[in-house]
Amino acid sequence: MANQIEKLNRMRKYFLWGILVGTFISLLFLIYPTFYSFFSHDRLSIPIMGNRLFDGALILWLITILTFLAQFCLYRIKLRKKPSLQTAVYDERIKMNWLKSYRFSFIITVGITIAYEIIQALFSAELLQFKFTLPNGPFLVLWAAIISLAASFLYYNRDANNE
Amino acid sequence: MSDNILNNTIKVQRAKANLTQEQLSILVGVTRTTINFVERGRWVPSTVLALKIAKVFNVPFEEVFFLDDKDPLKNFTEGK
């Protein structure tokens, strides 16, 4: 059992590193053409290189996701065989760390959505003329995030009857 | 209130019982890293985990876990 807990712990660490590195590199490939074209004088050569990078990024990301899913399924199968292993691998500190990670991820998501909307608004002719359009995807994400955050906190923090 | 007011003697108790962190982690059902964090005072365990650890060493809870003297609650109750 000793080796199994540590083995599964290591397995989790490796597949999380895998998805982190794979997604990060594919993101760099995706945003590179945008930045390159922004700072470059030779804009004619960008689309071809940009397309190749874009395709490469998507293929890399697909491979990363598929590898992650395969490893995750294997990991879950191993955990299901022994419930005691699941309790040990997902102990109280690990659960708390996941909650902290979700919180961090939530803040980043909301922050990027707000930044994106501000940048969009700065270049929006309609907004400058006070002609508001229907809310778009990022706006809806932002609203959903705020509503779900407030609602879930109120639910989990609800008061028990005072007896 | 400070986050790090729960001291412990896990390292001493482990040495007495001749247990490694990994062995202790199996006995209480957590990862070795968690035992390491608790031992170094970087993670305050739940009551259940703390009781499990004390039970493994077969000693009273207070011998393994105790509050720091700098605990503001202690000073408050003693009227300092």
Major sheet of chain B: order of its strands?
1-2
What are the low-pLDDT stretches of chain B, counting only 5+ consecutive residues below 50?
none
The rounded Rg of chain B comes to: 13 Å
> End-to-end distance of chain A, in Å?
45 Å
Instruction: State the helix count of chain B.
Output: 6
Q: What is the overall shape of chain A? A: flat
Secondary structure: helix percent of chain A:
over 70%
- The total count of helices of chain A amounts to 6
For the report, how would you describe the main beta sheet of chain B? 2 strands, antiparallel
Task: Report on the architecture of this protein.
The complex is a heterodimer of chains A (163) and B (80). Chain A has 163 residues and is an all-alpha fold. Chain A folds into two domains: 1-90; 91-163. Chain A is 83% helix and 0% strand. Chain A has six helices and no strands. In chain A, helix 1 runs antiparallel to helix 2 (46-81) and helix 4 (92-122) packs antiparallel against helix 6 (137-156). The radius of gyration of chain A is 22 Å and the shape is flat. Chain A starts with a helix and ends in a 7-residue tail after the last helix. The model of chain A has no long low-confidence stretch (mean pLDDT 82). Chain B has one domain (6-77): 434 Repressor (Amino-terminal Domain). Chain B has a two-stranded antiparallel sheet. In chain B, helix 2 packs across helix 3. The longest helix of chain B has 11 residues, at 47-57. In chain B, 25% of the residues are buried. The chains are: A mainly alpha (163), B mainly alpha (80). Chain A binds chain B through residues 1-2, 5-6, 9, 84, 87-89, 91-94, and chain B through 22-23, 25-26, 29-34, 37, 43, 45-46, 49.
